[in-house]
Design goal:
Structural class: alpha/beta
Number of strands: 7
Oligomer: single chain
Shape: globular
Radius of gyration: 17 Å
Distance between the termini: 44 Å
Strand order of the largest sheet: 3-2-1-4-5-6-7
């Protein structure tokens, strides 16, 4: 029987690449995205057209769902949709995330901080609380939770204090959830990308007044990462090969946090 996953932030970037990777490995996927902008975030979110394009690539293997990761009801709906439409739930993958900045931490507006924390941290928690009971009951020792954190979750970044703090929190949430779920055979891990070719990276470039390609210099491999490279790490954490890995924060950052 095909394994089943819920992926948030699925309409573009790392989320869309993760849907592609999972389907390629035989998964069926509920692909969820907000598909509208977030107050306090200074760049456009993915659209319904973006989500529809992801679904169209995969036919019956993917079901698109519009929802907000900050909503407990929407996350319950995503999990219920997976179990009703595909018959089970094996993996919950939190790719939804936003970045907002406004200079030094003391100058960042409350709306920007609230948006970043509510999506990046509360969004992971909402998915966890919705998915955990199903993973415990149905996955029979093979349940997987993966959250996308960031290289910023292991370091400081100028003018990105709210974002960096939120990603530190995601790593801490993952580590604690891994302990809570260990006895139930469910692994919980984080993946921390470096500078990856996404809409969020373009927004970060505008904060610093540079072209996104300039961020390649921060990574010893000398180039930007592609969303597919991060998705490959997520897919591995969902595999049987990673059954002994839980509470980990897997850096997929081109060496950014090594130096």
């Amino acid at each position: 029987m095909s394994r089943v996953a819920v992926v948030t932030g699925a309409a573009r970037g790392i989320g869309a690449a993760t849907v592609d990777a999972l389907v390629g490995a035989g998964y069926r996927v509920v692909a969820l995205d907000r598909c509208r902008d977030v107050a306090g975030v200074p760049y456009p979110m993915a659209t319904q057209r973006d989500l529809d394009a992801v679904v169209a690539r995969h036919g019956d293997a993917v079901l698109g769902l519009v929802g907000d990761v900050r909503s407990a009801a929407d996350m319950r709906l995503a999990v219920e949709t997976a179990t009703l439409h595909f018959g089970r739930l094996d993996a919950a993958i939190a790719c939804a995330g936003v970045m907002a900045a406004g200079g030094p931490v003391w100058e960042v507006e409350d709306a920007a901080v609230d948006a970043v924390w509510s999506v990046n941290v509360l969004g992971v928690r909402r998915l966890l609380e919705a998915a955990a009971p199903n993973l415990i009951e149905a996955a029979r020792g093979r349940g997987r939770v993966v959250a996308v954190a960031s290289a910023g979750g292991a370091m400081g970044l100028r003018h990105l204090a709210a974002y960096v703090a939120s990603k530190h929190a995601v790593v801490g949430l993952v580590r604690s959830a891994a302990i809570d779920l260990a006895d139930h055979g469910v692994t919980v891990n984080a993946v921390s990308p470096g500078s990856t070719r996404t809409a969020m990276l373009d927004a970060s470039a505008r904060v610093y007044g540079v072209d996104a390609a300039a961020f390649a210099a921060q990574q010893p491999i000398g180039r930007l990462l592609e969303p597919e490279e991060v998705a490959a790490a997520i897919l591995w954490l969902c595999s049987e090969s990673a059954a002994g890995v839980t509470g980990a924060n897997l850096a997929v950052d081109g060496g950014m946090t090594v130096v």
